[in-house]
């Protein structure tokens, strides 16, 4: 059980990294792109770049404010 | 995607991780036992080869659309992590990655552990474990980057060649100097890799989700410089922002 937990923590750290909001934002952006493209017929190529220019400064701002 | 861009991205990412792994192996070899450190290094490389052999065919077996979505998401998350750290370091909010400092720290920790000599291939278990873990953990990220880049561009052999070239160049330099490769511009390399991973992740991720980029592949020629400029702008902005606490030295990889 302890080893399983350690492995889970390793995978989390490896994939998600220091800020979970970035991973969550990327996932939301790709899901949004899929839905807009397939369900609404919108050319949604701009959504991921738009999220990127929001997520990165937000994540940096939170990191800089953290003591 | 150009073969040159793929080679450069994988080479730089692998070189950075190889420099960090070299520091750990050197610390294990110098303070503990060279034979144990070398066996640890070779065992980790073997484990990485097995992981690559298992994951490689699995990645290439995915349908292109699903592969682009999966790979794009992973590259984008990895890329933003690298870029985030690189921006924080370049703007002074995180201490620069210092191989000399990491080496000193590793040597100090390894020296404090009692030496229990035994016979056989691995005379010192601690030295073996230190070297094995260091190479395996640094190497895993390299395996993921090489496989995802190579798999998506249908150029796994080229990605593998770039990875092997980087490891060989760094290993030869490390062995020749028998000292941490402190002069390698790691922080600049990480910044470049972060920009490239983010650009390709954005491009492939959106394509995998069904979006069509204006200009098709040429969109990458706009995305990569735009992300680089945006990141440099954030560095300039953060340099003017005071940090609530002094940056601590980096003692681990990443």
Key structural traits:
A: 67 residues; mainly alpha; 3 helices; 0% strand; flat; B: mainly alpha
SS-based structural class of chain A? mainly alpha
Strand elements of chain A, count: 0
Strand content of chain B: under 5%
Question: Residue share in helices of chain A?
Answer: over 70%
Total number of distinct structural domains of chain A: 1
User: What separation lies between the terminal Cα atoms of chain A?
Assistant: 34 Å
Poorly predicted regions of chain A = none
Overall mean pLDDT of chain A stands at 89
Number of helices of chain B: 8
Q: What is the gyration radius of chain A calculated from CA atoms?
A: 16 Å
Largest sheet of chain B: none
Number of contiguous helices of chain A:
3
How do the SSEs of chain B run, as a string of H and E? HHHHHHHH
Question: Radius of gyration of chain B from the CA trace?
Answer: 19 Å
Overall pLDDT of chain B, averaged? 84
Number of strands of chain B: 0
Largest sheet of chain A: none
Largest interface: A-B, 35 and 40 residues
Proportion of residues in helical segments of chain B: over 70%
Structural class of chain B: mainly alpha
Unreliable stretches covering 5 or more consecutive residues of chain B = 250-254
Can you characterise this structure?
The complex is a heterodimer of chains A (67) and B (254). Chain A has one domain. Chain A is 78% helix and 0% strand. Chain A has 3 helices and no strands. In chain A, helix 2 runs antiparallel to helix 3 (47-65). By secondary structure, chain B is mainly α. Chain B has one domain. The interface between A and B is large, with 35 and 40 residues.
């Amino acid at each position: 059980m302890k080893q399983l937990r350690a492995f889970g923590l390793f995978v989390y750290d490896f994939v998600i990294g220091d800020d979970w909001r970035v991973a969550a934002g990327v996932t939301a952006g790709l899901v949004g792109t899929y839905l807009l493209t397939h369900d609404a017929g919108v050319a949604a190529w701009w959504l991921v770049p738009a999220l990127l220019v929001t997520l990165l400064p937000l994540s940096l701002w939170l990191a800089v404010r953290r003591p | 995607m150009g073969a040159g861009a793929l080679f450069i991205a994988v080479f730089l990412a692998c070189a950075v991780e190889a420099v960090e792994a070299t520091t750990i192996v050197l610390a294990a070899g110098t303070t503990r036992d060279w034979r144990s450190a070398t066996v640890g290094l070779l065992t980790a490389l073997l484990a990485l080869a097995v992981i690559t052999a298992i994951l490689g065919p699995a990645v290439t077996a995915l349908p292109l659309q699903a592969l682009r979505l999966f790979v794009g998401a992973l590259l984008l998350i990895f890329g933003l992590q690298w870029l985030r750290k690189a921006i924080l370091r370049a703007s002074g909010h995180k201490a620069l990655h210092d191989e000399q400092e990491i080496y000193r720290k590793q040597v100090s920790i390894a020296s404090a552990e009692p030496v229990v000599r035994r016979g056989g291939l691995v005379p010192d278990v601690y030295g073996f474990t230190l070297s094995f873990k260091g190479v395996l953990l640094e190497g895993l990220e390299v395996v993921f980057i090489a496989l995802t880049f190579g798999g998506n561009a249908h150029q796994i052999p080229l990605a593998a060649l770039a990875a092997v070239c980087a490891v060989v160049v760094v290993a030869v330099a490390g062995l020749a100097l028998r000292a941490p490769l402190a002069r390698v511009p790691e922080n600049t390399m990480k910044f470049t890799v972060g920009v490239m991973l983010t650009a390709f992740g954005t491009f492939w991720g959106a394509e995998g989700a069904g979006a069509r980029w204006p200009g098709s592949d040429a969109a990458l020629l706009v995305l990569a410089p735009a992300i680089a400029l945006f990141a440099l702008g954030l560095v300039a902005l953060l340099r003017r922002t005071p940090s609530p606490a002094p940056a601590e030295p980096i003692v681990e990889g990443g």
